[in-house]
Amino acid sequence: MRLTTEEAYRRYADRVFAAAFSVCRNQDESDDVVQDTFIRYHTGKYDYTDENHVRAWLMRVAINRARDLRMSFWRRSRVSWEEYMAELPFEEPGDSRLFAAVMNLPDRYRTVIHLFYYEDLSIKEIADILEKREGTVKSLLSRGRDLLKKTLTEDWNDDE
Protein backbone atom coordinates (compact mmCIF):
# COMPACT_ATOMS: atom_id res chain seq x y z
CA MET A 1 0.00 0.00 0.00
CA ARG A 2 1.39 3.39 -0.92
CA LEU A 3 -0.27 6.80 -0.82
CA THR A 4 0.77 9.42 -3.32
CA THR A 5 3.12 11.99 -1.83
CA GLU A 6 0.44 14.65 -2.23
CA GLU A 7 -2.13 12.54 -0.37
CA ALA A 8 0.33 11.60 2.38
CA TYR A 9 1.27 15.28 2.77
CA ARG A 10 -2.37 16.35 2.90
CA ARG A 11 -3.17 13.78 5.59
CA TYR A 12 -0.05 13.92 7.73
CA ALA A 13 1.91 17.15 7.23
CA ASP A 14 0.45 18.80 10.32
CA ARG A 15 1.18 15.75 12.44
CA VAL A 16 4.72 15.46 11.09
CA PHE A 17 5.26 19.15 11.84
CA ALA A 18 3.94 18.74 15.39
CA ALA A 19 6.17 15.73 16.04
CA ALA A 20 9.19 17.60 14.67
CA PHE A 21 8.31 20.68 16.70
CA SER A 22 8.14 18.60 19.88
CA VAL A 23 11.80 17.73 19.29
CA CYS A 24 13.20 20.89 17.64
CA ARG A 25 11.07 23.45 19.47
CA ASN A 26 11.67 25.73 16.50
CA GLN A 27 9.21 26.51 13.69
CA ASP A 28 11.73 26.96 10.87
CA GLU A 29 13.62 23.80 11.71
CA SER A 30 10.36 21.88 12.01
CA ASP A 31 9.36 23.12 8.56
CA ASP A 32 12.70 21.83 7.25
CA VAL A 33 12.06 18.45 8.88
CA VAL A 34 8.62 18.23 7.25
CA GLN A 35 10.15 18.97 3.86
CA ASP A 36 12.93 16.41 4.36
CA THR A 37 10.49 13.78 5.57
CA PHE A 38 8.21 14.08 2.55
CA ILE A 39 11.15 14.19 0.15
CA ARG A 40 12.30 10.89 1.65
CA TYR A 41 8.78 9.52 1.34
CA HIS A 42 8.52 10.63 -2.28
CA THR A 43 11.91 9.25 -3.31
CA GLY A 44 11.67 6.07 -1.24
CA LYS A 45 10.67 2.77 -2.75
CA TYR A 46 9.08 1.39 0.39
CA ASP A 47 5.92 -0.68 0.42
CA TYR A 48 3.71 -0.15 3.45
CA THR A 49 1.29 -2.67 4.91
CA ASP A 50 -1.44 -0.13 5.65
CA GLU A 51 -2.07 3.53 6.37
CA ASN A 52 -0.96 3.19 10.01
CA HIS A 53 2.38 1.93 8.73
CA VAL A 54 2.69 5.03 6.51
CA ARG A 55 1.93 7.31 9.48
CA ALA A 56 4.37 5.48 11.77
CA TRP A 57 7.11 5.63 9.12
CA LEU A 58 6.58 9.37 8.62
CA MET A 59 6.69 9.99 12.38
CA ARG A 60 9.85 7.93 12.81
CA VAL A 61 11.63 9.74 9.98
CA ALA A 62 10.51 13.15 11.26
CA ILE A 63 11.60 12.49 14.84
CA ASN A 64 14.95 11.05 13.75
CA ARG A 65 15.55 13.94 11.35
CA ALA A 66 14.61 16.47 14.06
CA ARG A 67 17.04 14.83 16.48
CA ASP A 68 19.77 14.90 13.86
CA LEU A 69 19.08 18.57 13.25
CA ARG A 70 19.21 19.39 16.97
CA MET A 71 22.61 17.75 17.24
CA SER A 72 23.94 19.38 14.09
CA PHE A 73 26.99 21.60 14.38
CA TRP A 74 25.39 24.00 11.91
CA ARG A 75 22.18 24.46 13.86
CA ARG A 76 21.34 28.11 13.97
CA SER A 77 18.94 29.84 16.28
CA ARG A 78 15.86 31.10 14.52
CA VAL A 79 12.41 31.73 15.92
CA SER A 80 12.20 30.25 19.42
CA TRP A 81 9.29 28.11 20.51
CA GLU A 82 8.20 30.90 22.86
CA GLU A 83 7.92 33.34 19.93
CA TYR A 84 6.08 30.75 17.87
CA MET A 85 3.75 30.06 20.80
CA ALA A 86 2.78 33.73 20.90
CA GLU A 87 1.29 33.29 17.40
CA LEU A 88 -0.75 30.19 18.25
CA PRO A 89 -4.45 30.57 18.97
CA PHE A 90 -5.34 28.88 22.26
CA GLU A 91 -9.00 28.30 23.08
CA GLU A 92 -8.48 28.36 26.85
CA PRO A 93 -5.86 30.24 28.90
CA GLY A 94 -4.77 26.94 30.47
CA ASP A 95 -3.96 25.53 27.04
CA SER A 96 -1.00 27.88 26.62
CA ARG A 97 0.30 26.91 30.08
CA LEU A 98 0.03 23.24 29.21
CA PHE A 99 1.80 23.79 25.87
CA ALA A 100 4.61 25.70 27.60
CA ALA A 101 4.92 23.01 30.28
CA VAL A 102 5.16 20.26 27.65
CA MET A 103 7.71 22.23 25.62
CA ASN A 104 9.88 22.68 28.74
CA LEU A 105 10.07 18.94 29.38
CA PRO A 106 13.35 17.19 28.54
CA ASP A 107 13.36 15.77 25.00
CA ARG A 108 12.83 12.14 25.95
CA TYR A 109 9.64 12.94 27.87
CA ARG A 110 8.35 15.63 25.53
CA THR A 111 8.44 13.36 22.49
CA VAL A 112 6.64 10.49 24.24
CA ILE A 113 4.02 12.85 25.73
CA HIS A 114 3.43 14.39 22.31
CA LEU A 115 3.04 11.05 20.53
CA PHE A 116 0.75 9.63 23.21
CA TYR A 117 -1.56 12.59 23.84
CA TYR A 118 -1.43 14.69 20.68
CA GLU A 119 -0.99 11.94 18.08
CA ASP A 120 -3.11 9.43 20.03
CA LEU A 121 -0.62 6.61 19.45
CA SER A 122 -0.49 3.48 21.58
CA ILE A 123 2.48 2.50 23.73
CA LYS A 124 3.37 -0.19 21.17
CA GLU A 125 3.22 2.26 18.25
CA ILE A 126 5.40 4.75 20.13
CA ALA A 127 7.88 2.00 20.98
CA ASP A 128 8.07 1.03 17.31
CA ILE A 129 8.53 4.63 16.15
CA LEU A 130 11.19 5.45 18.74
CA GLU A 131 12.74 1.98 18.48
CA LYS A 132 12.49 1.46 22.23
CA ARG A 133 10.95 -1.25 24.37
CA GLU A 134 7.34 -0.81 25.50
CA GLY A 135 8.44 -0.80 29.15
CA THR A 136 10.82 2.06 28.42
CA VAL A 137 8.04 4.05 26.75
CA LYS A 138 5.72 3.43 29.71
CA SER A 139 8.43 4.61 32.08
CA LEU A 140 9.15 7.74 30.03
CA LEU A 141 5.45 8.51 29.83
CA SER A 142 4.99 8.09 33.57
CA ARG A 143 7.99 10.27 34.41
CA GLY A 144 6.88 12.89 31.88
CA ARG A 145 3.42 12.99 33.45
CA ASP A 146 4.96 13.37 36.91
CA LEU A 147 7.10 16.29 35.72
CA LEU A 148 4.10 17.92 34.06
CA LYS A 149 2.01 17.48 37.19
CA LYS A 150 4.76 19.01 39.33
CA THR A 151 5.26 21.94 36.94
CA LEU A 152 1.58 22.68 36.51
CA THR A 153 0.91 22.37 40.25
CA GLU A 154 3.72 24.83 40.97
CA ASP A 155 2.36 27.24 38.36
CA TRP A 156 -1.13 26.94 39.80
CA ASN A 157 0.15 27.53 43.36
CA ASP A 158 2.14 30.58 42.17
CA ASP A 159 -1.04 32.12 40.78
CA GLU A 160 -2.78 32.06 44.15
What can you tell me about this protein's structure?
The protein is an all-alpha fold and 160 residues long. It has 2 domains: 1-88, Rna Polymerase Sigma Factor, Chain: A (Orthogonal Bundle); 90-160, Winged helix-like DNA-binding domain superfamily/Winged helix DNA-binding domain (Arc Repressor Mutant, subunit A). It is built from 8 helices and no strands. Helix 1 (5-24) runs antiparallel to helix 2 and helix 1 crosses helix 6. The longest helix has 26 residues, at 134-159. 26% of the residues are buried. The mean pLDDT is 85.
> What's the CATH architecture of the largest domain?
Orthogonal Bundle
CATH topology title of the largest domain: Rna Polymerase Sigma Factor, Chain: A
Strand content: under 5%
Using the alpha-carbon principal axes, give the shape: globular
- SS-based structural class? mainly alpha
- Report the C-alpha radius of gyration, rounded: 16 Å
> Number of DSSP strands?
0
Domain count, please report it: 2
